[in-house]
User: Fold this.
Amino acid sequence: MVYTLCLLLFMIGLYGVLTQKNLIKIIIGLGIMEYAVNMLLIMVGYRHDGIVPILDRAMPLDEFLARAVDPLPQAMVLTAIVINVAVLALSIAIAMRLYQKYGTYDITEIRQLRG
Amino acid sequence: MTGMTVIVKTITRWTAALIFLYGAYLVLYGHLSVGGGFAGGIILACSYVIMILAYGGKETIHALPKAVAARLDSIGALAFLILASLGMFGGFFFSNWIRDIWPGQQFRVFSAGIIPLANIAIALKVCVSLFLIFFILASLRMTRKGDKIEFRSEEVD
Amino acid sequence: MVTQLLTFLLIFMIIAALKALMTPRLLSAAISLGAVGLGVSFVFLLLRAPDAAIPHIVVEILVLLLLIRAAIRREVKTVSGQRDIFGAAVAAVLLLLLLALIVPVFSEDLSFGAQPVWAVTNPQVELASAHYLSRGLSETGSANIVTAVLLAYRGYDTLGEATVLFAAILGALVLLRPRARKPLEEK
Amino acid sequence: MMNQMHFLLPLAIAIPLGMGFILPLLGRKFTRLADVLANLTTASLVVLSVLLLISNVQLGKPAVYWFGGWQITASGTIFGINLVLDGLSALMITLVAVVSFAATLFSSRYMDQYTARGKYYGLFMLMITGMNGCILTGDVFNLYVFLEIAAVSSYALVAFGCERDELEAAFKYLILGCVASTFVLLGVVLLYAQFGALNMAQLGQRIASVEPTRGSILALLLLLSGLGVKAALVPFHAWLPDAHPSAPAPISAMLSGVLIKAIGVYAIIRVIFNVYGFTDQLGMTLMILGTLSMVVGVVLALNQWDFKRLLAYHSISQIGYVVLAIGLGTPLGILAGLFHLANHAIFKSLLFLSAGAVQYRTGTRQLDEMGGLAQRMPSTSRSCLVASMSIAGVPPFNGFFSKLLIIIACVQAGRWGFAIWAVIVSILTMASFMKVQKYAFYGKLKEKWAQIREVPLVMRYSMILLAVLCLAMSLLIVPGISAAVLEPARDALHQGVKGYQEAILVLLGSGG
Assistant:
């Protein structure tokens, strides 16, 4: 169920990227897609009744091993988050430059390349 | 961008300092508790961002000029790369050679060899990067003159 | 309990995402994206990933600020022009088909909150994540296993990711330079 | 000595990465210094990659490097990231290094018309880093990360001139590229969720140990569609004809010459041959995609009058050849495909550089506005002629041999239909390039071009270097030379999953 909803969110983002006509809205759609994938990654790493994968002195190692959630997806998500923010920033920069050139964010008016 | 009122500025000065401290804590204790270079670095960037929001770009740029920030950005990234390359002393890139020499005690700050150092490098890099992203995108001026849109950032290099 | 909360959060996020795409006003679209991002942070916290939740919420705020300040404060406030209803419908149908294709794989083959499928059938093999958990502290000295993975075991990934950020900044600096071309000087 | 060479492996990433961080620091005053440093970097990469190529031949087996020394454990768990150098990756990094050397050489004068030289070279170096990282890595998540490095820097480089069409092309490229990357990441997540591993060899082992499940097939489809966008195979090619012509010429050369191969085709064949294992259905899929790209690309190229856009469509078409040949799955097919891939890297980058040289002097990309340029720009014209004959498949240039091999491989495998398509496309390609030569370089010199001069010396050198390579690479067909360069690359793929796993999972118990 949770996976289904998460994938639905992914598809909503993709739908936005495919159908929106406004640069900012396309970027927003892209953001939604990326959020959905990040969440999926964390969900994959979750274990029932899990605890945070940070050791402290009070916790015996056996219990920690049995209960801690998977740390690898969390590290991957951190990487993915930074990549996403980088890409979003770059896309906003391009969108702003386009706005400066065309005076609009509407993609139907930004059409020079054809063929 | 001009600044906001005096009240906002005063409160911002205090909160920015607190946020900065919290970010620094996250960086330094990243290997022992929640946090780490990224979380800390981003929060450090946040303290600059609220300063931009409250004081306006002109004043913040005195605190950290764009050219200096761009340089720090390179230096932070380079520091991490050099740290990784120094691992060659331990035989491999990214090998934790400091820890081989000086293992330290578990659950103490000085216990993880290059990890705290790498955290600091990453934090510097991430902080400056996000500050720069925010600064160059938010401080951009676009003014419409007839059909043409003028376009300039506050500092030209 | 976690599952119910998660479902609730996800439905909230789906509504926010739909709102972000449907609303004609750019400002409310950006704020709706912020709501989705907030939901993501809560999900991270709920699923025991505070290390991801803290950066995510801060990054989310920054992106929201960027979208609002850098993009919305222009003359364009709303989306103009008519929508291409036919194209949108086709896209929606195609995506729903794709969803119908993917969903069974995820919801039937993977079970939420369990080990990877392969590990259940091959319990004798130690997975990489089990190795991190059991030996992370002794091998790297970092009690925070996520940090250990990020900076020791997979430090190379982290270097790569810092590089992506660097490339994006460099790209933004390059794109927003006031003058891109200059006349050629003959020598 | 030679079998210790794989300790140099991380340098292929560290050198351009370090320079990528340093070069943006150089401001306006140090433009020439930036040129020199960038050229030195790429030259050192050429040396390094040739060393690695030689060491790979001498070692005779893949070399593996584990970051941080986190090697495979006794129980067989892989928890670190590794770099793998086998015949194929050695060939690819050599190609990247050679083409980027030519491109930096060309840039050192061509980029005079743009500002921000240091940042340009910085992005350039980061793009090389991303490609080398993709080529050498043995880990799927790491592949995604380096894919993004290469992609993000190429988005910025496409928009480098900040003109209207460049920005538009870059935005389109960015959006499609990001969607593609997200698909790749989704595929990686799905693989991890099922198999709990990220290392390619380990994944391959675990995928083979169970019956093909829906999950693993879906993950493959996601990876293929994501990487297919990067490789601009036909249903996913929409961004390429805009993005490649819009970039500055040296960047177009890099994008068409190596980027779509390093992060697209190479990643696809790595996943198919070394992780999943080649099957007939997969081969058929590749062949159909390849033929489609081949035909659609060349047909769209026929009525183009924009020089660079025409070249971009031909890139799609030539990539189709590569994918078709590799999809055959026979030893000869794979060999021919890789040979063509290498050749295409050289002649397509040369073509883009010469288009750039023409644009540098005349300021136009429209073929019908040119004419008779051979009289005024003899070196450019001659190198362009060499490249045109290579791509059109005229003997004795390299393109002829690889196309011939592809057609022979098709016939040998009994795929007559595909062979016929390959021949037809080859004829159409030749027609298209005869048009280019006729309108751009031969015919009557137009009045307005009477005063133009040949491009500066370094730009000429870089084109001549590639033109010589166009001829020299024909030698790769000679058995002895082929055994040193192409056959190890072929074997890396043809030995499939088994060979790859043996190199990483078994040998590495002992050292490395």
User: Anything to note?
Assistant: Chain D touches chain C through 59 residues (CB under 8 Å).
